[in-house]
Specification:
Shape: globular
Order of helices and strands: EEEEHEHHHEEEHHHHEEHE
Helix content: 40-55%
Bound molecules: (3R)-3-hydroxy-3-methyl-5-(phosphonooxy)pentanoic acid
Number of strands: 11
Number of helices: 9
């Protein structure tokens, strides 16, 4: 038997623009997915009450078949548990894909590399998201803080200070695929406005990377707020997202924005040292939330 784990992710800046080649900043988070795997006569996945076989007529069945085929894995019994809300922009499906690929790679006859694991997780992700940029699987597989560029992969970002983040669920899960398609329609209808938005997000991301490397958290927070305004212009924000961001800012968060595809799902707020006041205010306003810390690489 073998066990494997992978964390979820939070996009700090640059979602949606990343689909069009703009770099985005993301970080791995501790909550994620765990898998226990044992060789078996028939490949199957157990997730809560469900038992899924590769190739079942469901997204999970198709994704499992794609992942196992990519790794040429032997038949395995895989039991998956998730300690992350799903469909909320925190990379739950990528964490599941990376954890499953790690477990299957560990039990494969041939030695498998991290890049094989990432390719298998991407095959899994494509079933759920159509044409993902790859940021979710990359951030989940690498952990830490990264800059991700479609086609070019990841660069590690050296954080000068830990990030105290608060993640709050601001609406029912939204479909990443539908949100990405709705942004693509805006690009078709208003190409000039869309290009200006991409340019704006690019400059926010470049400056945010400098803030992360210099430990300028108030600067980073302001850039997150500006990114939220540009995302609202792409119609991926909602009333609940705007309200949650405002509650977090009023409670002392340095910045807040939606994270992931939007249309519902989670917001990320950057707390100033102590996340408790932000957590308390969001809970008081009825939002389910939790805190997570992103540490500089060298820290234990
Ligand atoms: O999977 P989500 O909801 O975290 O969204 C991923 C980020 C997007 O930029 C909206 C899509 C993508 O493939 O990069």
């Amino acid at each position: 038997m073998t066990s494997a784990r992978a964390g979820g992710k939070v996009i700090l800046l640059g979602e949606h623009a990343v689909v069009y080649g703009v770099p985005a900043l993301a970080a791995g988070i501790a909550r994620g997915a765990s898998v226990e795997a044992t060789p078996s006569s028939e490949a199957h996945l157990v997730l809560g009450e469900r038992r899924i076989a590769p190739g079942d007529d469901s997204d999970l069945g198709r994704a499992l078949a794609a992942l196992l085929a990519e790794l040429g894995a032997p038949p395995l019994s895989l039991t998956l548990t998730l300690d992350l809300p799903a469909g909320c922009g925190l990379g739950a499906s990528a964490a599941m894909g990376v954890a499953l690929a790690r477990a299957a790679a560990a039990l494969s006859a041939e030695p498998r590399s991290e890049s094989d694991v990432l390719s298998a997780a991407m095959a899994w992700e494509r079933v759920f998201h159509g044409n993902p940029s790859g940021i979710d699987a990359a951030a989940s597989a690498s952990g830490g803080c990264i800059q991700f560029t479609r086609g070019a992969g990841i660069e590690r970002v050296a954080l000068a200070r830990p990030l105290e983040l608060v993640l709050a669920v601001a609406g029912p899960p939204a479909s990443t695929r539908q949100m990405v398609e709705s942004v693509a329609r805006i690009k078709e209808r208003r190409p000039e406005m869309f290009q200006k938005t991409l340019n704006g997000i690019l400059s926010l991301v470049k400056n945010a990377r400098l803030c992360l490397e210099a430990g300028d958290l108030p600067g980073l927070g302001q850039l997150m707020n500006l990114n939220q305004m540009l995302l609202s212009g792409l119609h991926v924000s909602t009333e609940a997202i705007e309200r949650a961001c405002q509650v977090a800012r009023d409670a002392g968060a340095l910045g807040a924005k939606l994270t992931g595809a939007g249309g519902g799902g989670c917001i990320v707020a950057l707390a100033d040292l102590d996340p408790e006041p932000v957590l308390g205010a969001l809970r008081g306003a009825g939002f389910e939330c939790f805190a997570t810390q992103v540490r500089p690489e060298a820290e234990p």
